[in-house]
Design a protein that fits this description.
- The structure is a single chain.
- By secondary structure, this protein is α+β, with helices and mostly antiparallel strands.
- 23% of the residues lie in helices and 30% in strands.
- It has seven helices and ten strands.
- It has helices spanning 9-12, 38-51, 64-71, 75-87, 140-146, 193-201, 219-225, and strands at residues 91-94, 98-101, 117-120, 129-137, 153-163, 166-176, 205-216, 232-242, 247-256, 261-264.
- Strands 4-5-6-9-8-7 form a six-stranded antiparallel sheet. A two-stranded antiparallel ribbon has the order 1-2. A two-stranded antiparallel sheet has the order 3-10.
- The termini are far apart.
């Protein structure tokens, strides 16, 4: 179900606009899916506004009533979505003032290959349980992340990954449709995505940039991975590029921290 454009502060209070309000996304659409909890969809939608730069650090989010109207949800559902973003450090509530986008976290880099910075634990099984593989028109936020024009065709791929048959990760990937035009016809339930890109489409991947944040399992993760709400997770954001430096995949994932850890070798 398509909703109305997400309002900016200017739409609500044109006399006293908030700095950065123009960075919101007029005309952005929200399509609710029946198979995923609404609060989780809202959380991910707001996160993409932050990541794309549409809502920069210091930007004040529209008030609750406007966001509830845009998403078609109750205040309780909206507060749960925003509460998750608060607990993860992406937005902050200021008493008597509103909710604001936080300043970016400080970054500490490790240069080198995946041999120096890699996941330690049992390897992920080939394939996955595919929750969705849909060809959609890129909304402005994700189009900006992928470096595409708004409404360019992309694939939105959601999977539960397993290790030795046990669910250990949830991944949502966005890929330009031009790179893999019939991705939904491939055996993604049996093969690694990187192998499909290489063997079927001739896409050669050269490098990836990955960000990792600690967190705990939310209800969406609990439902699909069968863990408790206090289970630690790694929240992973990865951009993978081809050898000619085109962005091939943007991925958001949650990986069980009770089964995996990351190792860094400094030389």
């Amino acid at each position: 179900m398509l909703k109305s454009p997400l309002p900016t502060r200017d739409d609500i209070d044109p006399v006293a606009p908030t700095p950065g309000a123009a960075a919101a996304t007029p005309g952005a659409r929200f399509a609710a899916r029946p198979d995923i909890p609404l609060y989780y969809q809202i959380k991910e939608d707001v996160f993409l506004h932050l990541r794309s730069g549409q809502w920069p650090p210091g930007f004040e989010l529209p008030p609750e009533h406007a966001l509830c109207a845009h998403y078609g949800v109750s205040r309780g559902t909206l507060r749960r979505a925003i509460g998750d973003l608060v607990s993860e450090g992406f937005v902050e509530r200021r008493r008597g003032r509103g909710t604001f986008v936080c300043q970016p976290k400080l970054e500490s880099g490790v240069e080198g290959s995946y041999r120096r910075f890699r996941m330690i634990g049992p390897p992920l099984d080939p394939g996955a349980r595919v929750l969705a593989c849909e060809r959609v028109a890129a909304l402005p936020d994700i189009a900006g992340v992928l470096g595409l024009a708004p409404d360019a065709p992309i694939w939105q791929l959601e999977r539960v990954r397993h290790t030795r048959g046990e669910p250990v990760a949830i991944q949502t990937s966005y890929l330009p449709a031009a790179l893999c035009p019939d991705l939904d016809h491939q055996a993604l339930q049996h093969r690694h995505l990187v192998d499909v890109l290489r063997d079927v489409y001739g896409v050669r991947l050269g490098r990836a940039v990955e960000y990792i944040d600690p967190g705990v399992a939310d209800r969406h993760i609990v439902r699909h991975l069968g863990v408790t709400p206090t289970t630690p997770v790694f929240r992973i954001e990865r951009s993978t590029y081809t050898i000619d430096n085109r962005l091939a995949e943007y991925r958001r994932a949650s990986l069980r921290g009770d089964l995996y850890r990351y190792r860094i070798e400094l030389r």
